[in-house]
TrEMBL record:
Residues 18-31 have a biased composition (Polar residues). This is DASH complex subunit DAD2. It holds the Pfam family DASH_Dad2. InterPro entries: DASH_Dad2 (IPR013963). Belongs to the DASH complex DAD2 family. Residues 1-31 are annotated as: Disordered. It comes from the Eukaryota. GO terms for biological process: attachment of spindle microtubules to kinetochore; cell division; mitotic cell cycle. It is found in: Chromosome, Centromere, Kinetochore; Cytoplasm, Cytoskeleton, Spindle; Nucleus. GO terms for cellular component: DASH complex; microtubule; mitotic spindle midzone; mitotic spindle pole body. Keywords: Cell cycle, Cell division, Centromere, Chromosome, Chromosome partition, Cytoplasm, Cytoskeleton, Kinetochore, Microtubule, Mitosis, Nucleus.
Length: 139
């Protein structure tokens, strides 16, 4: 009996399965690479989101500080406005006890001075401050 020449390569069904597994591996590798690229893009987006969120947090802190300052200023204005009623009442009481000047036809009567500032004390204090500054420069 004589046999024909033997094939030296792999049988055809092995070759087909090897080739099929290679194409399956290639498609899996392509799918994995696509998923990796997708995750890289997602990571980059998350990093940008983190950076933008940090910037927004900084701006919100600055806004908080400004609002705190504004709130303090508003409280001060409210206190001043609350005192105006008392100030006006005190001015009314002070002016009620003053004699009314007689108006002439040519002149309008001026209101009485309700606040008196002692100028002599202010001038003396200014001279002392000047002396202290001069002594500080010389010393």
């Amino acid at each position: 009996m004589s046999f024909g020449p033997r094939p030296t390569g792999l049988p055809s069904h092995f070759r087909a399965s090897t080739h099929g597994s290679t194409s399956t591996q290639n498609s899996q590798t392509t799918a994995l690479q696509a998923r990796i690229n997708e995750k890289k893009l997602e990571l980059e987006s998350l990093r940008q989101l983190r950076d933008l969120s940090a910037g927004l947090a900084g701006q919100m802190q600055q806004l908080e500080e400004r609002l705190s300052t504004l709130s303090d200023g508003t409280e001060a204005v409210a206190a001043v406005m609350g005192n105006w009623a008392n100030v006006l009442r005190a001015v009314g009481m002070a002016s009620a006890g003053l004699p009314k000047p007689k108006a002439t036809e040519d002149e309008m009567p001026l209101p009485q001075t309700l606040v008196r500032i002692p100028i002599q004390q202010a001038e003396a204090a200014a001279r002392e401050i000047q002396k202290e500054e001069a002594a500080g420069k010389d010393g």
